[in-house]
Amino acid sequence: MGHAIEFQDVTKTFRGAGRPAADHVDFVVEKGEFITILGSSGCGKTTLLKMVNRLYEPDSGKITLFGTDISTMDVVKVRRGIGYVIQQIGLFPHFTVGENIAVVPKLLKWEKEETDARVEELMNLIGLEPEEYKNRYPAQLSGGQQQRVGLARALAADPKILLMDEPFGAIDSITRMKLQDELVALHGGMGKTILFVTHDIEEALKMGTRVMIMNDGRIVQFDAPENIIRNPADGFVKSLVESAKAKEQFWERFQ
Amino acid sequence: MEYLVNYYDKLLGAAAEHLQIVLVSMALSLAAAMILTVLCDMVPLISGVMLGFLSVVYSVPSLAMLAVLIPVTGLGRTTAIIVLIIYNQYLLLRNFLAGLDGVDGGVVEAAAGLGMSPFQILVKIKFPLSKRAMIAGIRIALVSTVSIATIAASINAGGLGTILFDGLRTMNASKILWGSILSALLAILLDWILGVAEKRQKSYSL
User: Fold this and answer.
1) Which of A120, A197, B85, B157 has its CA 20 to 30 A from that of B11?
2) Is residue B206 within 8 angstroms of chain A, CB to CB?
3) How confident is residue B204, by pLDDT bands cut at 50, 70 and 90?
4) Maximal C-alpha separation, chain A
């Protein structure tokens, strides 16, 4: 089968940009890992993610999923096999919740009964009662509920890989914490490989089995959360960890 | 008023003829504009060139456009309809493309990321979500078609323009008046019908 995701010397420079958004990036992700990708805006983390489902094409280098070079595959097929969740959520406002979740099964031409059963199953999984919510439109849901539907839609066709681009970035902090815990629990039961982009260090350290820290288009450290905290690879990582610690001290003052 | 009472059959006949020219032109214009819109969406590079070209064409006065086409397609209704279709392309394409552009980028990105083909994104996502903007464009084109169609009478295409031009030639004020009033009423009526249709479209903002 090969590694779930492998980047080999991948470089991508956007037209008009002074430096590459991805600069000779090499890494391997095994099946079932939950990788959080952390970095400040413009560091190339979203670019990296979008190259996995070919929303962006690399200038050079090779990306393989389970041993297959994705540049040799039909782009639409690659995407249907990968779950994709974004910060703007991007639910289709003219589709009901049920229809939104059924998008990929319909694209894959599943039988209607099979699709319906899957929609119910996923709605129960994300904690939205099918009876009550299935026929609602996205505008009738809260932000947190919308993102749950976004997650269900991404999981609909049971993809092996899930890409998440700051999925909880626009959600209030209480709902956000809840969604984080739920996603970690969900991941434990599913065996899916997740790439999760965030600029929030606590979110990255809390959720990832490994954390990839990016700066200026390069991976500066890719390791388990505790190793990153104990042995920061360079000054950039160190300052990130220290910023998180400083925040904690802020709260301790009130204890 | 007297003119209306004495010649109402003639006026109504001209109005019906006018309506027919307008509806045929609109139907064909919409078909052509849809094809151009799909083309522009699939190949973004051509949309700028296409709009530029159409805006130049649109700026040609209608009498001149009719004159240019007479040697090719002759006098009569066909020529008038072709001219109306050509004028409409600018109005329709511009509004259709603006409508597609107005669709939330996050929605389009999600559609692509889930594995919809560009054509599926257009048909299932972008068109339904820009229906209101598209109907607004159709309204503008419709009103403009009603008014330009009067000029088409100058090449024997019939319609309310016939009465108007008759009035101009014979300095008959009531003919001029009634030709204009009926053409304006027709424009208002058609625009109102589409206005109702536009309001009935749900707006799907989140």
Assistant:
1) B85
2) yes
3) low
4) 58
Q: Please give the Cα distance from B120 to A204 (Å, whole number).
A: 35
Distance from CA of B125 to the nearest CA of A (A): 7
> What are the backbone angles phi and psi of residue B133, rounded to the nearest 5°?
-65, -35
The answer to whether the CB of B182 falls within 8 A of the CB of B17 is: no
pLDDT tens digits along B96-122: 999 999 999 999 999 999 999 999 999
* Residue A152 to residues A32, A82, A158, A244, B32, Cα–Cα distance (Å): 18, 13, 10, 31, 40
Q: In this predicted model, what pLDDT tens digit does every residue of A163-183 receive, in sequence order? A: 999 999 888 888 899 899 999
A239 to chain B, minimum CA–CA distance in Å? 32
So what's the pLDDT on residue A148? 93
- Alpha-carbon distance B159 to B48, whole Å? 35
Sheet holding A60-65, edge to edge: A22-29, A5-12, A60-65, A68-69
- Which residues, 6+ apart, have CB-to-CB distance to B73 below 8 Å? B79, B82
pLDDT score of A83 = 95
Distance CA A55, CA A75 (A): 9
